[in-house]
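Exercise 7b. C-alpha cells:
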C-alpha cells in the first residue's frame, strides 16, 4: 500500500512537472510571439534568391549574436568561386554533453507573389544568369528562420535545463540544392562541431497550422537533373528520306523511358522519371539537327538511382542507333552533379523519439504520421550518407478554416512554391518553436 502511495505521488510529481514545463514554454512563447510575427512579416517582405542571401544572413547572424551565440558568417564554398557562401553558423556551448545541430534555410524563390497580403513581397533581383526576376518566400523559409530565432532565444534562456553544444545553421541555396554541400565543403563539421543529431523542420501546404507531421525512414527522394541532346541530320520537311529526324527519335525516347519505371524497376522501389522540357526545331517545314530535353529523376535508394540513370543512357542511345543515326551523332546524355541532391532518410529511432516528444508538447491530435514524398531537398546531405542521425519534421502552416473549406469543396490549396502560398503566422510559429525547443530539451536534457 505504501509503495502504491509513493508511486502515485511520484506519478503526480512527474505529470505536474511535464505540464508545468509545457505551460512555461507556452508563456515564454506568448511573451515573444508579437515580436516574432513582426520579424516574420519583415522577412517575408524582403526575400532573397539562392546564392544572394546577404541581407537575410546578416540579420539572422546579428539576432543570434544578441542572444549570446558565437556566430560565424559567410560559411560556404560553391563550385562556382564567384558566388559567396552566405551560411551562418551560431554555437552555444553549455558544458559537456551531446551536440545538436538545428538547420534553417535562408533562401527564397523566383516567384512573383500574388497573395495580396499587406506584407507581400515586391522584391525584384538579378538571378545567376543576370536576369531581373521577382522574388518570394514561396516555400516558407521565412517561417523556418523565424521559428529558429524563437527557438534560439528560448534555449539561450533555459540553459539550466540542458547541457552540451547547440549549433544553429542558417543554410543558403536550398532551392538550388547546392547549399548544404557548400557548407560541408567549407568544413561545417571540422571547423565547428560534429553533431550527434541534426534536426530541421519544413512547413507544409497540406497540413493545418497547429499540427506537426513526421515520416520515419525515407521521407524525400534523391533528385538528379538529366540533359539529353538528340542529334540527327536535319533537312527539308518534305524530304524526310534524306534526313535522320531527331524529333521522331525524341518522341520514341520519351515513350521508351516510361518502361524504366513500369518494366525495369521493382514496384517496391519508388522511382519517377519526368521529361519536363523538350525543345527542337524552328519552323513547320524544317527537320532540325537537334532536340534538347531536360529530365528529373527521383529515387530513394542510391543503387536504384544509378540503375535508372544507366537505363536512360542505354535506351536513348539504343533508339538513336535503331533510327540509323551514326555513332558520331549519338545522343549526348549528361547527369548534373551540381543539380543533384541525396534522399532524405529520417533516422527511424530518432524520428519516433521526437514524435513522442511532440505528442507530449502538442497533444496526440496535433501529431500526424505522414507518407513519404518524391520531392527533394538537400537537408539529407548533412547526414553524411546516414552516418549522423537526422530528422526533418513537417510543420503545418495552413489556416484551419481554409483547410476545412478545401476539404468540403474539393478545391486544392496553393502548394509550396505557388505565388498564392500563404502560411498562417500564428499558430504556425508557436507550434514550430514549441516542437523544436521541446526536441532539443529532450535530446540534451541534464
Ligand atoms: Zn522549396
Ligand atoms: Zn523549402
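Sequence design result:
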Amino acid at each position: 500500500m505504501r509503495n502504491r502511495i509513493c508511486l502515485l505521488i511520484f506519478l503526480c510529481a512527474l505529470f505536474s512537472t511535464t505540464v508545468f514545463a509545457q505551460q512555461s514554454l507556452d508563456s515564454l512563447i506568448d511573451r515573444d510571439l508579437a515580436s516574432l510575427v513582426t520579424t516574420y512579416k519583415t522577412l517575408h517582405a524582403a526575400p532573397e534568391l539562392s546564392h544572394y542571401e546577404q541581407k537575410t544572413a546578416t540579420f539572422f547572424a546579428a539576432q543570434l549574436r544578441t542572444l549570446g551565440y558565437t556566430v560565424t558568417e559567410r560559411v560556404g564554398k560553391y563550385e562556382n568561386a564567384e558566388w559567396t557562401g552566405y551560411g551562418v553558423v551560431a554555437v552555444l556551448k553549455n558544458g559537456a554533453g551531446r551536440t545538436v545541430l538545428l538547420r534553417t534555410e535562408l533562401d527564397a524563390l523566383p516567384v512573383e507573389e500574388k497573395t495580396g497580403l499587406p506584407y507581400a513581397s515586391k522584391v525584384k533581383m538579378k538571378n545567376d544568369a543576370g536576369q531581373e526576376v521577382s522574388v518570394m518566400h514561396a516555400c516558407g523559409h521565412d517561417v523556418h528562420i523565424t521559428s529558429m530565432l524563437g527557438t534560439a532565444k528560448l534555449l539561450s534562456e533555459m540553459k539550466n535545463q540542458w547541457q552540451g553544444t547547440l549549433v544553429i545553421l542558417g543554410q543558403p541555396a536550398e532551392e538550388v540544392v547546392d547549399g548544404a554541400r557548400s557548407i560541408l565543403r567549407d568544413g561545417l563539421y571540422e571547423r565547428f562541431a560534429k553533431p550527434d543529431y541534426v534536426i530541421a523542420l519544413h512547413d507544409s501546404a497540406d497540413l493545418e497550422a497547429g499540427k506537426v507531421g513526421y515520416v520515419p525512414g525515407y521521407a524525400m527522394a534523391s533528385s538528379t537533373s538529366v540533359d539529353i541532346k538528340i542529334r540527327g541530320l536535319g533537312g527539308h520537311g518534305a524530304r524526310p528520306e534524306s534526313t535522320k529526324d531527331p524529333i521522331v527519335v525524341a518522341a520514341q525516347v520519351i515513350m521508351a523511358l516510361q518502361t524504366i519505371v513500369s518494366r525495369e524497376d521493382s514496384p517496391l522501389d519508388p522511382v519517377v522519371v519526368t521529361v519536363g522540357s523538350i525543345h527542337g526545331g524552328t519552323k513547320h517545314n524544317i527537320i532540325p539537327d537537334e532536340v534538347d530535353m531536360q529530365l528529373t529523376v527521383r529515387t530513394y535508394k542510391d543503387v536504384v538511382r544509378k540503375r535508372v540513370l544507366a537505363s536512360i543512357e542505354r535506351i536513348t542511345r539504343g533508339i538513336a542507333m535503331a533510327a540509323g543515326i551514326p555513332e558520331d551523332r549519338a545522343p549526348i546524355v549528361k547527369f548534373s552533379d551540381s543539380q543533384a541532391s541525396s534522399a532524405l532518410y529520417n533516422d527511424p529511432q530518432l524520428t519516433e523519439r521526437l514524435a513522442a516528444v511532440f505528442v507530449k508538447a502538442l497533444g496526440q491530435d496535433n501529431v500526424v504520421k505522414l507518407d513519404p514524398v518524391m520531392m527533394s531537398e538537400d537537408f539529407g546531405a548533412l547526414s553524411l550518407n546516414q552516418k549522423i542521425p537526422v530528422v526533418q519534421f513537417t510543420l503545418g502552416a495552413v489556416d484551419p478554416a481554409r483547410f476545412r473549406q478545401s476539404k468540403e469543396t474539393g478545391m486544392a490549396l496553393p502548394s509550396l512554391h505557388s505565388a498564392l502560398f500563404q502560411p498562417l503566422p500564428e499558430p504556425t510559429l508557436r507550434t514550430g518553436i514549441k516542437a523544436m525547443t521541446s526536441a532539443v530539451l529532450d535530446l540534451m536534457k541534464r
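Instructor comment: The pocket of zinc ion (ligand 1) is lined by residues 139, 175, 416-417 (CB under 6 Å). The first helix runs from residue 2 to 44.
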